[in-house]
Fold:
Amino acid sequence: MFFASDNGSGIAPEVLEALGRASTGTAMPYGADDTTARVRAHVREIFDAPEAAVYLVATGTAANSLALACYCPPWSAVYCHQSAHIEEDECNAPEFYTGGAKLVTLPGADARIDADALSETLAGAEGAPVHHPQKGMLSLTNATEAGTVYGPEDVARLAGIAHRHGVPVHMDGARFANALVSAGCSPAEMTWKAGVDALSFGGTKNGLMGAEAVVLFDPAKAWEFELRRKRGGHLFSKYRYLAAQMEAYLADDLWLDLARRANASAARLSEGIAALPGARLLHPTEGNAVFAEWPREGHRRAQAAGAAYYMWPGGQSLEGPGDTPLSARLVCSWNTDAAEIDSFLALLRG
Structure:
């Protein structure tokens, strides 16, 4: 009963097999291998973006930070939701890679940026004097840190506001596949057709050992990205092992299948929790994460039986009246199975 994080899931068998194949023989280093060339072409095809620059890195933090750094000078601002991953969970890496760009956080229900708040903030930044941060980039997390999803129309609305103020748009897509299958649209509709300029295209949370793609829909940024990636220590010499993972991920739409499995598990878990006495969902379950609360006694039974998940927020105690509701975050993965979910729900019911 593991619901702590999709980072804890195993590697999809197809990906593990691809890594084994990649380890036979030799290949040119630093991304000059044939597998990388095929991956680049496949990503361009999937996104209907033949001119896009495509690069692989090993972590989402590197993908986000390097992409933002290509657009944001040190004196600029990165606009993001107040619970965005780049704000709460990356140890100031975006500030480090940009050389000091300031994160300006914005409110919004269910971890989605409020359009009016964005419009007001960017209007206030127009003509900012030398004493203030200058406009940099808007970053949208999709799926969000609350497990919700920006649909193409949501992305387009926010990107339209940003572009009217001369601000480019980045998408943190660590769970992009989960968002995409939830929204039921194409990769292009979710990204550049809606106004996204740069995408962090995640794979690690969805069955890869450790590989993310950065997709720059403006190829003019490609050389700067390459320099920043090398300078930042993220140009792998044995690059083919990143490419082998991504190639298997994209083959036969495996990435979408894995995301559908995770989302379906989250829906099953969410529906089960919502039906429990004294329980409620804190955010809509639109991707593979469930945010909910239920009575403390249910938490005690689940955790005594070895269930792994995060109390959310932290600091809540299992000591106290059993009927007091406590909140939690539970994340399903591509390999979460129905029996695991049902066993967990049985513990909560008592």
In short: The CA atoms of residues 16 and 302 lie 32 Å apart. The chain has a mean pLDDT of 97. The chain has two domains: 14-254, 256-349.
